[in-house]
Design brief:
It comes from Brassica carinata (Ethiopian mustard). By secondary structure, the protein is mainly α. About 75% of the residues lie in helices and about 5% in strands. A two-stranded antiparallel sheet has the order 1-2.
Length: about 325
């Protein structure tokens, strides 16, 4: 069967290639590894450029099965020019099942360290940043797009390109528009925290950024709250004098104190650290989200907060 698959892909007509690609997806992992040694990636990529959506979908599935679990095949596929073809598919394809397959394929390819620089050297990052905020994209496709950006941003030299492509703004938009307790919010906040860790100034100047993060602390899942606290801790540590007042004015204290008590282990630690950075901010005005009025923090309240922080730290 392996020999028939190889022969059909290399020398068969398009109908035979389609049948072989379907059969390839059904082979065992060991069998797929063996046939990958026979230069079958090129005909599969040729099928990927077909004007027929069924052929494109079948070739995507076959390539995805080759890449799954094989670092060698991931490198081979990228070297053969797959990323540019996937970029073109994502720019022009309207059939959502193909878009989802392409996003999943990119996620797998980007998990290989040897591929990251090559992938980042294309226009793919800019395209993914635009796609994750697209209303018509499915949640799974958005998750895969965010995960791909996360894979790429683990290389520090790629982070500036991710920032320059507008990822911080796009991720804040995702967090703001989706259910704060959803997996999508968690993944978006996780990537944003990673970006802020390397580039703490990246959300400076984005209108409403602090407000979105404070809402995530109030309404998010445990993981989302943890990441939101981590982001605020990063920006406050980077420029305390500028950012601590803005953070307090958005009414962060109730949610932050709550996380410091019953958040995740990491969330508690970061919440307490952020509270220590914020505690000297006497005289700042915060917003009451219920009544839409502003409240000035009196010195006695700040002393109370300091006492609470002291108890939490012991």
């Amino acid at each position: 069967m392996e020999e028939i698959v190889v022969e059909s892909l290399l020398r068969g007509n398009r109908e035979a290639q389609i049948e072989a690609a379907i059969e390839l997806s059904n082979l065992s992992r060991k069998q797929r590894q063996k046939v990958a040694e026979r230069d079958i990636i090129s005909p599969l990529l040729s099928m990927l450029q077909s004007q027929d959506s069924i052929t494109t979908e079948i070739s995507l599935s076959a390539l995805l099965s080759l890449a799954f679990g094989s670092e060698r095949n991931k490198v081979r596929i990228v070297k053969a020019g797959a990323v540019q073809m996937l970029l073109e598919i994502l720019q022009t394809e309207t059939k959502m099942v193909i878009v989802e397959l392409a996003m999943a394929f990119l996620l797998i390819l980007s998990s290989c360290n040897r591929n990251k620089i090559k992938i980042a050297s294309t226009r793919l990052i800019q395209l993914l940043v635009g796609l994750i905020g697209h209303d018509q994209l499915t949640v799974q496709a958005k998750l895969d797009g965010i995960a791909t950006l996360h894979n790429l941003s683990t290389l520090q030299q790629i982070v500036p390109l991710v920032v320059a492509s507008g990822a911080p703004y796009a991720l804040l938009q995702v967090i703001n528009s989706c259910d704060k307790s959803s997996e999508l919010a968690e993944k978006a906040a996780s990537l944003l925290e990673n970006i802020v860790h390397h580039s703490p100034e990246s959300i400076s100047g984005i209108t409403g950024a602090i407000e979105v993060l404070v809402e995530a602390i109030e309404e998010g899942s445990g993981q989302c709250k943890e990441h939101a606290v981590g982001i605020l801790l990063g920006v406050c540590s980077f420029d305390r004098e500028t950012n601590r007042g803005m953070i307090l004015r958005e009414g962060v204290m109730p949610g932050l104190l709550q996380v410091s008590v019953d958040g995740t282990r990491r969330g508690k630690e970061m919440a307490r650290e952020l509270l220590l950075l914020l505690r000297d901010c006497s005289g700042y005005v915060i917003k009451d989200k219920q009544s839409k009025i502003e409240i000035r923090i009196p010195g006695t309240m700040l002393k109370l907060v300091e006492e609470m922080i002291s108890k939490l730290s012991t």
